[in-house]
Amino acid sequence: MKTLAIVLLALVVCAAYVSSEECGANQEFRECGPACDTYCDGHDCGIRYFVCPDKCYCAKGYLRNNNEECIPKSECP
């Protein structure tokens, strides 16, 4: 039982480390976020509600451009 508790604790620590992923400029890490980010050109991946990946997304007020960078919505072409 003690071994099981140690293994579970190790898994929790590893999960916390993985979820604290470093994100790029104007991005934030979200757990169980939408399937895809919002892009300047308005394209949509079409599967927003079927998966919820843990990854970096554009911060509020930012959209992805064609270079996959998060830029202010006002700077979208």
From TrEMBL:
<dbReference type="InterPro" id="IPR002919">
    <property type="entry name" value="TIL_dom"/>
</dbReference>
<dbReference type="InterPro" id="IPR036084">
    <property type="entry name" value="Ser_inhib-like_sf"/>
</dbReference>
<feature type="domain" description="TIL">
    <location>
        <begin position="23"/>
        <end position="76"/>
    </location>
</feature>
<protein>
    <recommendedName>
        <fullName>TIL domain-containing protein</fullName>
    </recommendedName>
</protein>
<keyword id="KW-0732">Signal</keyword>
<feature type="signal peptide">
    <location>
        <begin position="1"/>
        <end position="20"/>
    </location>
</feature>
<dbReference type="Pfam" id="PF01826">
    <property type="entry name" value="TIL"/>
</dbReference>
